[in-house]
Known about the structure:
The structure holds two protein chains of two kinds. Chain A is α+β, with helices and mostly antiparallel strands. Chain A has four domains: 4-73, Beta Barrel (Thrombin, subunit H); 82-109 and 206-437, Rossmann fold, CATH 3.40.50; 120-192, CATH 2.40.50.100; 447-574, Bovine Mitochondrial F1-ATPase, ATP Synthase Beta Chain, Chain D, domain3. Chain A is built from 14 helices and 26 strands. Chain A has helices spanning 94-101, 220-225, 244-254, 269-278, 307-324, 337-350, 364-372, 404-412, 421-425, 447-470, 477-494, 508-523, 531-548, 556-574; strands at residues 4-11, 14-19, 27-33, 36-46, 49-54, 66-73, 75-78, 86-87, 120-124, 131-132, 137-143, 146-151, 160-165, 169-171, 176-181, 187-191, 194-197, 207-209, 233-237, 259-265, 295-300, 329-335, 376-379, 385-394, 415-416, 438-439. In chain A, strands 8, 18, 19, 20, 21, 22, 23, 24, 25 and 26 form a ten-stranded mixed β-sheet that branches. In chain B, helix 4 crosses helix 5, helix 9 (343-365) packs across helix 10 and helix 10 (372-389) runs antiparallel to helix 11 (397-411). Chain B has three domains: 4-73, Elongation Factor Tu (Ef-tu), domain 3 (Beta Barrel), CATH 2.40.30; 80-330, Rossmann fold; 343-427, no CATH class. By secondary structure, chain B is α/β, with parallel strands linked by helices. Helices cover 34% and strands 24% of the residues of chain B. Chain B starts with a strand and ends in an 8-residue tail after the last helix. In chain B, a hairpin with a 2-residue loop joins strand 21 and strand 22 (321-322). Chains A and B meet through strand 1, helix 1, helix 4, helix 6 and helix 13 of A and strand 5, strand 17, helix 6, helix 7 and helix 9 of B.
Amino acid sequence: MSKDGRIVAINANMITVEFASRAIQNEVAYARLGDQRLKAEVIRVRGTVADLQVFEDTRGLRHGDTVEFTGELLSAELGPGLLGMVYDGLQNPLKKLAELHGFFLRRGTYLDALDRSRRWDFTPRVQPGALVQAGATLGTVPEGIFTHKIMVPFSLRDTWRVVAIAPPGAYTVDDTIAVLEAPNGIQHNVTLCQRWPVKIPIRAYAERLRPNEPMISRIRIIDTFFPVAKGGTYCIPGPFGAGKTVLQQITSRYADVDIVVIAACGERAGEVVETLREFPELEDPRTGRSLMERTIIICNTSSMPVAAREASVYTAVTIAEYYRQMGLHVLLLADSTSRWAQALREMSGRLEEIPGEEAFPAYLESIIANFYERAGLVRLADGSVGSVTIGGTVSPAGGNFEEPVTQATLKVVGAFHGLSRERSDARRYPAIHPLDSWSKYPNFVNEEGVRFARQILRRGHEVNQMMKVVGEEGTSLDDFIVYLKAEFLDAVYLQQDAFDKVDVATPLERQRHVFNVVLHILQTDFSFPDKDTARRFFLELTQEFKNWNPTLFQSPEFNQIEARIAQRVHAALTQPAPAR
Amino acid sequence: MQKVHTRVLQIAGNVITVAATDVGYQELAEVRSARGTSLAQVIRIQGDRVALQVFAGARGIATNDEVRFLGHRMRISFGPHLLGRIFDGSGLPRDRGPALEGNWIELNGPPVNPAKRIIPRKMVRTGIPMIDVFNTLVESQKLPIFSVAGEPYNELLARIAMQAEVDIIIFGGMGLKYDDFLFFRDTFDHHGALVRAVMFVHTAADPTVECLLVPDLCLAVAEQFALQNKRVLVLLTDMTNFADALKEIAITMEQVPSNRGYPGDLYSQLAARYEKAVDFEGAGSITVLAVTTMPGDDVTHPIPDNTGYITEGQFYLRNGRIEPFGSLSRLKQQVNARTRDDHRTVMNTMIQLYAQCRDTQEKQAMGFQMSTWDQKLLKFGTLFERELMDLSVNIPLEKALDLCWDILARCFDPAEVGIKTSLIEKYWPSRPSSH
Ligand SMILES: Nc1ncnc2c1ncn2[C@@H]1O[C@H](COP(=O)(O)OP(=O)(O)OP(=O)(O)O)[C@@H](O)[C@H]1O
Ligand SMILES: [Mg+2]
């Protein structure tokens, strides 16, 4: 029986296809348009009719056109050579496409994700006769700064025996490097690469652990106040222009992880270009090598086909899980998960499903939950530990967090970095709201101190609110000082200059050091003769810190300024400055 | 031979349905009715039922009118012959020039491969301090002017366009008042810019659907010029009319609305247009300046909201001024590190102080006692508003930066402004002017 079907309806990027034999949910199919083949995915089957989302522009398709069903679920190709690549949502290498077609992304062109001609230096790690299971290491190849493990395909069930293993040597990703045999005699050839359906989590590990190790981002307000753990999840909701992307860009540079996968999902192409052009030139602060060597970019920007947005986040998380299986710590940054949710909403509308709130499909929550559940810290069969940390931005309509995507996300993540319009308007970057945000992960800087600092922030805020009603003159000097302390903490510690090459990233050690200096000031009981003197003291102190933050940690200049700060504090205590 | 269909099955809104096979998705058709001939585009195919969006509107179409499929999609003839010409929303001449022939290009071409884009690097000087200093415009940026009706947004648009150094200007008017159309045409003419401009004009009196094509016509033409190494500036006013036309079609097609009646794909639709802004590697660029009037001055309304999520910032026009707070140029950091070493610091400091000033103004309005510091802030605010924010100010960036230092020095001590000492030493005026 023919595996082909025929188009019976077209509605934007959804086609309805009558098929002859069978259709599998989420299988890949190709709509034929002249000599072009447009990739699509089955998203609903009813009787002999399937609805497919097409990952391309559907213009020109006709009623009656042929659709080929492949029987394969939408999958990612996994193997050495992923690092440093820039893919579209369907894992087409964009640079190769540019070589082939120039300026524009021509539809219907699909290229291999991995370079077919490149040879990798393979070192076997098992002997013939060994018994192995999915995920076990058969050998390794060096990939940049990493030892890339060649693993038993995750799709193999039960235990297999190694029948043959290739000797050390140079192999392409298609060369067979091992032959495995199942108890029932079936043999399987293992190459350097394997495929995995992107919507299914890779589970070839021994156990999931509780995330309790810090994933240092070098952003002070995050690491000190709202930390993220390796294997944890966090979200960054915020109105447009509040700084979600800038935060993720900084994190992608400085985060203390082995590998960063960036999923640019339905956002601006220009932002990807920045990463794409700058990373090869930037040095990884951990290794001294080019940042691109630890980065993979999956980009399906807003003018690229909408249906592929969904594919892009799944492709990204699948690649992240793949490297986790090698005992590496991987960070996945998705910007923006709302665009993916909107793509779901568009399809749901075309499927004429009963809409939920704001027309999002009713299953939105479970889809978001399942996605974030793919993060985690795991212990692998060989005892090593790997992790996938997921940080997603959310772009709520109207900047209002009471909307379905933000709410569904907040239910499942471990930390919430909510950006506020007031803070970004006042250029208080990063605009993470210090009172509304939260993290469920352990504090890695100074738990007691942070609690105290947060109290100052809260009280400072209250005093500020009160001052709006009763005025400065109706506020006691003590309250006023609390307010000044909160403003001081905000200005010198919470705010961080993304464009200063030192201040942009504060390593953990420096955070601990500086935080303690700040904390000491917050805990000091100052007595000023009047409010103007108090304000002036904190303004000048703020000034000192603004000079301090851009100095190199423990450089002579750093130490000098630190000493000056101590002097100022001391002076304010011993001889209250006279009123001006 | 093209087959003629003479049975219209359904007419709803501006969408008609005919029975036809062998029709390509998004193909064009010609509909002949007693009112004349209009183009129509296939927007849905269901079995042999084909839904078409009629550009001139469905009013007056009879069930036995002729529908002829053309076998191609919406297109426009491209070439230097476009320069100086004015067209309507279907791409037909609006001036007295000849009809277009040959060298057809399709609208809504494929997206640019991100790998072929480069990081924008060139500042577009406007002479407006609120732009040049605080929210620098950059070549290849896509940026809307958010405004309420009644603000001089078209004047601002025209002024930036005339001052910007670009090779080609493409103008797209959507739901434009006829007077405004004349205003733009005359302004271009007056500055001798008409010869390097192409205008696509849909006026408020024209059929709604034609409004939908204006951005696509503009951007398709702009793209071709950019590929020929030209620096192109596209002006689109008013994108709110475009979005409303989308809404109308969506409702006709019985789509479930997502937010205040707007379709769920509003973001994608707008993005598909704005993302045409580009700096090509090894070719020209497209900069897009648009106007988005905000219904009810509400920036959380779906149109400005979705726009803000797409564009690279926005100029917020209110009370005849570009607001420093709502406004943002996200590309400014690509250029303002290389303008002058104090640019970023001045920009941040001025805004932070102005934010404090706004708080103080509120306190003052409530009758609270003003401290010495408050007095300083108030003075600062007045000077800022008068000498920098006023739209009539027209000075180059460097002069504007000097003026910022001057204003700071007239109001504060160096220690009060939170600026790095090295910059204070370099720029703090020893004797500020005493206005
Ligand atoms: N940490 C920061 N330091 C300095 N400027 C910042 C910072 N974060 C954001 N900005 C400014 O705000 C602009 C917008 O930031 P960003 O692009 O990250 O916003 P966003 O939240 O991702 O918006 P959208 O939802 O529209 O994508 C930046 O271009 C920059 O000018
Ligand atoms: Mg963003």
